[in-house]
Amino acid sequence: MDVGISLNGSNNYSTYLGDDLIYTIRYNNNSNFNLLGLIMVAILEGDMFNYSNINVADGYYDSGNNTVTWDSSVVPDFASLAPGKKGELILRLRIKDQFGSGGTGTKNTLIKASVRLSSPNIPPGVDSEELLATASLITKISTQPIFTQFAYYSDPAFGSSGPIPPTVGQETTFTIHWSLINPGNNVGDANIVATLPVGVTWKGS
To answer: Do 134 and 116 touch, CB atoms closer than 8 A?
Structure first.
């Protein structure tokens, strides 16, 4: 049997603060036997997981050790997984909105999810005490600055004027908001440059 895990559709995803995480856990019976009594366990490791909004899609979440378990009571396939049969499980949660007081050390900038598919029921002729397949995924939390820009017609601080939609020959004012978030290391000598298109003038406010 085989098991795999991906995050947001990728095996090399880089996440960021406040990001929504969707782990896809895939399982496959690549043997010639019916596999009976399977149990899947996902182990989550990392201080930056926001466990308060975890959604385990019918699994059992144990907050004591941050594990999620699926068995045949919630995944019918796990009662008897036929040869060639495959499927997937979904686990959803979020990254915290900011780093803790410990800063951005290795412990805070990496998260890890591991999965373990096992069964104590050994098919005839298989020399093993337990059927077992494992996989893991380590994901880096980006510490790059994040820049966003928003344009407002009706702004609480500067108000608004002119027609909407804009009309040729008449002035309409907009307020531009810039947001810069730096979740990681200090940034020095940074510059933000904006270029105005033809027909737009800077009001100097």
So the answer is: yes
Q: Is 190 left (phi over 0), alpha (psi -120 to 50) or beta?
A: beta
Pseudo-torsion of CA 100, 106, 109, 114, nearest 10°?
Answer: -110
DSSP assignments along 183-204, one per residue: -SS---S------PPTT-----
CA distance linking residue 97 with residue 196, whole number of Å: 32
In the structure, what pLDDT confidence band is assigned to residue 188 with cuts at 50, 70 and 90?
confident
The whole-model pTM stands at 0.71
Q: How far apart are CA 76 and CA 73, in angstroms?
A: 7
